[in-house]
Amino acid sequence: MAKILGIDYGKIITGLSITDEKKIFAFGLNAILTKNLMNFLENFLFCEKIEKIVVGLPKKLNNKKEILIETEIQKFLNKFRVKYPKIIIERLDERFTSKMAFYTMIKLGLKKKKRRKKTILNQISATIILQSYLAKKNNSYS
To answer: Whole-prediction pTM value?
Structure first.
């Protein structure tokens, strides 16, 4: 069965998460340098069957898009669509995911030194984005 990949696209580091085969749970997968994202995905998608990606949609509190990072995300999505036209792309509002990820790190008992690592923060953010998407999708079936 195909899985869903979650992406918290960052200017420098991008967090990735993935679902289980039944698409019930999201798990942190990796956090990589954004400049290496397409190469990573090429290798990853060769080995793993992915039917959909869910990419965070950065918005401000006033509901307007974050223009600077959204421009970069759109460039990535355009490249992705060309290379993988059969994989569905969905977007999900990612407001507060970084804050939620940071508080999750505190609750997990991670020391300050580890909490400063953007790789962990981005990976948790990607997991929150994907789990939120799954919860929203499951609620729409009810």
So the answer is: 0.81
